[in-house]
Amino acid sequence: MNRRSFTMVVIFSLLLASIAACSDQADRTSSLAPTTSIKPESQVVSQQASQPASKEVLEIHSFDMGFKPQNLTVPSAGVYTIKLVNDGVIPHDITFPDGTVISAKANETVTGEVTIPAEGMNFICAVPGHEAAGMKGSIQVASADAAAITPTMMDDHSGPAPESDIVADESAPEYTLYDAKAPTALEGTVHEVELVVEEKDMTVAPGYVQHVWTFGGTVPGPVIRVKVGDTVRIQLKNPSSNKVPHSIDFHSSEVAWNDEMTSINVGEDKVYEWKANYAGVWMYHCGTTPALHHIANGMYGMVIVEPKEGLPAVDHEFALVQSEWYLGPQGDLVSLEKAASAAPAPEYVVFNGVANQYKDHPLEVKTGASVRVFVLNAGPSIDSSFHVVGTIFNTVIKEGVQLRPETANGYGSQAVDLAPAQGAIVEFTTAEDGLYPIVTHAFNFVGRGALGLFQAGDGDPKN
Ligand SMILES: [Cu+2]
Questions:
Q1: To the nearest 5 percent, what fractions of the chain are helix, strand and coil?
Q2: Measured in angstroms, how far is the CA atom of residue 212 from the centroid of ligand 1?
Q3: Cα–Cα distance between 84 and 74 in angstroms, integer?
Q4: How many angstroms separate the CA atoms of 282 and 278, rounded?
Q5: How many angstroms separate the alpha carbon of residue 419 from the centre of ligand 1?
Q6: Ligand 1 centroid to 303 CA: how many Å?
Q7: Tens digit of pLDDT for each residue in 244-254?
Q8: How far away, in angstroms, is 170 Cα from ligand 1 center?
Q9: Are residues 332 and 360 in the same domain?
Q10: Spatial separation of the C-alpha atoms in residues 195 and 133, rounded to whole Å
Q11: Domain containing 289: what range?
Q12: Same-domain status, 71 and 105
């Protein structure tokens, strides 16, 4: 298989991931079942009487796997020409519930006619699996009751929205991009670090705002990077403007649980001092009861402890924290009930706090350059299988166990398994210009936000 077709297969595979993620949802809300409320018969008749004399053309592009636009509005009921432009690399169709099917091969444009009734009509791609992957849309009639217009999903290009009882708020603020670049190690050997707990609203995915608890105002909290032998003196502050007690637990420290890790009330602060005795990628988190809720609500971050002599220089370094969002009501805390389920089913699994943020804003690297990623699975409950599509990890240092090129006897690593609270350092290079998706290879979560991209060079392997 050549590189080009390999890339396409990869992208196609990623898109297929969302099939699994959302097949339940699709089953329950078959797009062929009308979702609009039916207008009174007399109104339908009068709408049909005002059919346009010449057929208006509605241009709909299909891609792998979606339609653009996905939700259209026409001025009145009647016969329309549908122009299907297939921008995808595989065949797609537009299938209407009245039996109208317009099919187009890759890079083909096909037109057909359909009669849009007053109550509007949904459409899907009937190729098996494509509807569940997000290939569905609707055509509404402008004069129809506005309340009857039910877009099937947000047009955010990221595949189907995850199954949730929480309705997306299209007026939610844009998310704030979390800088994935790993910081350099702090200078010196004794570090004073102030961590202020902030309770605040955060857009965790387009359309979803949660009232999160944070270390330092971001989820995850700041990456703290030191070396073995360093002393870290954390000043933890819980401002009086907050509502609940909080605490901090550094996995990189060796202290009694009922000493530095104890909670502080609002308006209090404390010092938590520890010595970095062991190298690795470590988790820190709030341990205040119920710790599950405090972690699920955003209180976690990464500590990097380098060996005393430091890590070898590489061209790029990134820090990625995988975690889960169990959505509570808009603007409220995440759902402890969902998070506490024996079979947890988060709406989102994310890298650095926000669903798909590095798919929308790829992490740029030089082609062929050495890339190091510090990875932490903050959970709280689901394992990660960290993988970068199209690369092989030549170095893995996971929980103290090392795979190094100089000692590997030719072995490499494809995915690093991280249970909640485990961390690793992985290193790889990119073979050519192009896109290298970042996923957890637990693929049901890729469609739920656990998707990013490394972009090597200009991102295009063909030029
Ligand atoms: Cu807390």
A1: 15, 40, 50
A2: 10
A3: 16
A4: 10
A5: 21
A6: 18
A7: 999 999 999 99
A8: 29
A9: yes
A10: 42
A11: 190-306
A12: yes
Per-residue pLDDT tens over the stretch 67-96: 999 989 898 899 999 999 999 888 999 999
At 54 the pLDDT is 60
Q: 321 with 452, same domain?
A: yes
Does residue 353 sit in the same domain as residue 285? no
199 CA to middle of ligand 1, Å? 9
Task: Identify whether residues 137 and 42 lie together within a single domain.
Answer: yes
208 alpha carbon – ligand 1 mean position (Å): 21
Domain check: are 393 and 429 in the same one? yes
The tally of CA atoms less than 13 A away on the side-chain side of residue 357 is 22
Domain with 290 in it: what CATH number? 2.60.40.420
Angstrom CA distances, 304 to 183, 309, 394, 443, stand at: 10, 14, 20, 27
Q: Is 417 helix (H, G, I), strand (E, B) or coil?
A: strand
CA dist 43 and 55 (Å) reads: 22
Distance 254 CA to ligand 1 centre (A): 20
Beta-strand pair 101-104/348-351:
unpaired
- Mark residue 278 as left, alpha or beta (left: phi above 0; alpha: psi -120 to 50; beta: remaining): beta
Total domains, the chain: 3
Predicted TM-score (pTM) of this structure: 0.72
